[in-house]
Every structure is written in structure tokens, then in C-alpha cells.
Amino acid sequence: SQQGEEDPQALSIQEGENATMNCSYKTSINNLQWYRQNSGRGLVHLILIRSNEREKHSGRLRVTLDTSKKSSSLLITASRAADTASYFCAAYGQNFVFGPGTRLSVLP
Amino acid sequence: DAGVIQSPRHEVTEMGQEVTLRCKPISGHDYLFWYRQTMMRGLELLIYFNNNVPIDDSGMPEDRFSAKMPNASFSTLKIQPSEPRDSAVYFCASSPGGGLNTGELFFGEGSRLTVL
Fold this sequence. Notes:
heterodimer; A: 108 residues; 0% helix; B: 116 residues; mainly beta; 7-stranded mixed β-sheet
């Protein structure tokens, strides 16, 4: 399986600061995806980056992908209290396995 | 579209009882996934279907668990008999297929199961 493994497990920042989360995976992929989960809810797709892309932006989100290192990072700029959630990466190839996630707390 | 619909949202049952969780995927999606989420194990892929056919059930914990997809708009996950360690949130997700499939998953809100 091509598991995503997020780092750090938990992150606490002040509103307005940037939050960076990292993801590592094990084998070749078609794309890598980031998801967000608010407490008690299902996961919601945030952004997808293809294996031939190195960087992608969507609003306050920036994702990078380094296939040589089998790693990705998610940057949330100018964080808000509403960004408080768990964030998961999933490396998509033949199957879909999620890592343990990063719990982000944005303090007002 | 209403998204992926799961029922029940909450289920409390006693050990030994049968539990059936239900899922209606997004219309037109060819893939359906069942996940289990716990604090200890995180998100575990239990089984997934493609065009109603089970493709990989290697994540199903044991014979007490079974999943079916009788048609493109309905799937069930059954636990019989249930045990306290089955307590978790069970998610169903669907994904479009075909040549445009990027693997993006659309999740339901989950079914929280508590086995006493």
C-alpha cells in the first residue's frame, strides 16, 4: 500500500501564523491528495497534486511535492481559528491508504 | 447531489448483536470504500468496490465483518456478532471512475458505533 505519513502529529499556532504539515509515502504514485477533517465530520478533499507537478496553490493552501524524496508538504497561510482540524495526506496509486494525520489547533 | 449518505449516524448496541451500516454513494461514482476510524488505529481501509464488485477486502478485520454492494446505489457493512472493540466511526466514501478518475474520495459523515 502507499501510505501517507504526516508530520507533525499535532501542531498548535496562533491565528495569522502559517502552518506547515509534511507527508511521506513509500512507493510511486499517480498523485497525492490532502484532506481535512473537522471534529465529528467526514474527510473533505482539499487539494490534489499530480506526480509531474512540483507545486500547487489553492487560496491560502500551498502544496509541494518532491517525488525524489517521496514527500509532500501542505502550507496554510494566514491561519484562522476555523482552520482547526485534522489534516491527512493520501498517496494515490493503486489503493487509497491514509496516514495518521496532523491535528492543527489555531488559537485566536 | 446530496453527497454520500450514511445511516445510521449513531448506533449503540450490546455485544453479540448484529450491526448493519448503510451507504448510498454519489450517483455515477464507480468506486466505493469502507473505512474505520479509531484514535488508536487512525483511518483503516476495510474494503473497496469497483462497479459493485469487491476488489480488495484485505482490511476486513475478521469473519465477523462482511460488506455487500447489491447495486450501484447501495452498500452495507455488517458486523455479526459485534464486540466492544468494534466501537469506532465507520466511513463510506465514493470516487468517480473511468479515465478521469484521480482517486479523489468523497466521504459521508460517518456512522459512530458503540458496542457495550
